[in-house]
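Lab meeting notes turned into a lecture example. A postdoc, R.K., suggested we walk through two folding results consecutively so the class can see how the record format repeats. The first protein's sequence and structure tokens come next.
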Amino acid sequence: MKQSYILLKIILGLVALAHIVIGIIGVIPQIPVSIAVLFYGAALTLNAQIEHVLQMFGAYMLTLGILAALAIRNPVQNKFIVYGVVFMLFLRTLQRILFAGQASSVFGIPLGVYWAQTVIYFAVAVSLVTLELKVIKSSNA
């Protein structure tokens, strides 16, 4: 159980860190959006509307990152935060599968990069739910 518990906390930490960093980039207009664009590999034409949407997106990312960070302290007690993160990652995986062509053509994301990120989202979601259930089962035994 101890290994699963530590691994669960590490993965939650990575999820928290990624979302907090991307969230801060999105909500603070002084930080260039080009940094976030590099992460996703997207070609993005910025205008006032896109910048506003990215700021809203950043708020959600930052909030999710903070929630994931709070769950690290006790993932068993905070299982609903973990399940929320898992749900979001599964939903994002489904969206990426359904809209792959659109994302590739609109944002110019190379398909190899796009699918690699999709697999990572799915793997993180599966890992989190598997480890969370394993840790909960062990703590109830």
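The second example is placed directly after the first for contrast:
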Amino acid sequence: MRKIIYKGKYLTMSTEDVDGHIYERVSVRSGVRVLPIENGKMLFIKEFRKHEGKARLKLIGGWRDKEDLTSLEIAKEELREEISMKARNWSKFYTYETSSGTIEESVDYFVAQDLEKLPPQKNPDSDIVEEIIFLNKLELKEKLKAREIMWDKDITVALMFFE
């Protein structure tokens, strides 16, 4: 039986005794990411995140923290909030799920096409989008090699899209 030792807005940490061995687990709130595509290139944002103390290139995305919205509705909201855009065509590309026994996480990835700029709006998060960058597969790999972008599950899925 799991014993919750911490429950926050985005993380839950628990322990479980299995035959005298204590297993530790972290469950991460589900999330969404958007793969905006234009002219064969994927849109990334360079975002300054106060809690990280620096800017980094990343996909648009967020947490599934609004229980009354679907993953797709949250993805549309994130595209609008982060870069004041909408897309006419949406499709679910991939769901990343991990349950290694230690970390549990699920992220839905959506492709957004036929992008349209909206009037600027204030992002409700404290993060600041400094730049919007469109990259093709080769350019993405070059940014990875130069360590200008962090290798993580999101980048793995972005590269899968280009295959």
